[in-house]
TrEMBL record:
PANTHER family: EPOXIDE HYDROLASE. Keywords: Hydrolase. It comes from the Bacteria. This is Alpha/beta fold hydrolase. The keyword Ribonucleoprotein does not apply. GO terms for molecular function: hydrolase activity. The keyword Hydrolase applies. Residues 45-304 form the AB hydrolase-1 domain. Signal peptide: none annotated. It comes from Vibrio aquaticus.
Length: 329
């Protein structure tokens, strides 16, 4: 097992700017899954789920605000990302496996009736976990994420179209991606670059200026080429496992707890595409909620508007009487 699993040396994470959090680990399929766990003395929990190619560092500015407001905050690193272990083989990084790993994580923690903020693959994975574990959450915030629900011709065509787009993009470097940000160039960049510049990519999808130290912190989990199997594979599996995704959507449509959408106005992938409206229409708990479009924010809105996001979530939890609904198990 050890020959197929990589662990980023802990020295890579020393003295990260604005990330003073102690590491915590759970074992998932023989691998260590890292998570931030702050405010453990508080009774109700907020989960913060990141996507590709980021890690829990993305939430460094939101975590203290949520803890200071009286919540326990748990921010896990996906397997293959951050301080979590990293399978060497890209074949390990299937959509189904990532859902299974996060489901195991949630079950082992045993926390129920929590709240969650999900962005990017954090939503694509986390929503499917919620479909399997409906008592895990009582409140849900989705931001700049999507969950495919495809049937008939669409189910047949979309995966093929995405593969064509990725192939047509060819060898995409950072300059080409920044000049034309779309799915094809994103997939092409990760497919063809031996060691993707994660910090630079996060910057290209953020409006706020990131310091060199912050960009290096995003690079930290991946000290050499072989560590990149997770982020390299994810662009290729966005339309995988569609039968299971469709089934999970049917379960999610029965989940009636309050849902809030916070999508960015300048996300080059998702802005103006109606993904926020799809969540609003499919979740009965989203009806009548104070959904907003977050202004002056790109795809990684946690970098651009962290204070606003935390405040909006906290106000909404108060408005929906989350703390009066009971305590986490």
């Amino acid at each position: 097992m050890t020959s197929t699993i990589l662990t980023t040396p802990i020295s890579a994470f020393e003295n990260l700017v604005d990330y003073p959090f102690e590491p915590n680990y759970l074992e998932v399929d023989g691998m260590k899954m890292h998570y931030v766990d702050e405010g453990k003395h508080h009774t109700q929990t907020i989960f913060l789920l990141h996507g590709q190619p980021s890690w829990s560092y993305l939430y460094r500015h939101m975590i203290p605000l949520l803890v200071n407001a009286g919540y326990r905050v748990i921010a896990p690193d996906l397997i293959g990302f951050g301080k979590s272990d990293k399978p060497l083989s890209s074949d390990s990084h299937s959509y189904a496996n990532h859902v299974d790993w996060m489901t195991q994580f949630v079950r082992k923690l045993g926390i129920k009736h929590a709240a969650a903020f999900m962005q990017d693959w954090g939503g694509m994975i986390g929503l499917r976990v919620l479909a399997q574990e409906p008592e895990w959450l009582d409140r849900l915030v989705v931001a700049n994420t999507a969950l495919a629900e495809m049937k008939g011709l669409e189910k047949f065509l979309v995966p093929k179209v995405l593969k064509v787009m990725a192939a047509a993009a060819g060898k995409t470097d950072l300059v080409k991606f920044k000049n034309k940000i779309n799915y094809g160039n994103w997939a092409g960049y990760f497919r063809h670059n031996p060691q993707p510049e994660i910090g630079e990519l996060i910057q290209s999808l953020s409006i706020r200026y990131l310091s060199q130290q912050e960009m290096l912190a995003y690079d930290a989990p991946f000290p050499s080429e072989e560590y990149f199997a997770g982020p390299r594979k994810m662009p290729e599996i966005v339309a995988d496992d569609l039968d299971a995704v469709n089934q999970d959507w049917q379960s999610l449509k029965q989940w009636s707890k309050p849902v809030l959408t916070l999508f960015s106005d300048q996300d080059p992938f998702l802005a103006g595409q109606g993904y926020d409206e799809k969540f609003q229409q499919n979740f009965s708990g989203a009806k009548g909620q104070p959904h907003i479009t977050v202004a002056n924010a790109s795809h990684f809105l946690q970098e651009d508007q962290s204070t606003q996001l935390a405040q909006k979530m906290l106000m909404w939890l108060e408005e929906t009487k989350y703390k009066q609904s009971g305590v986490a198990a």
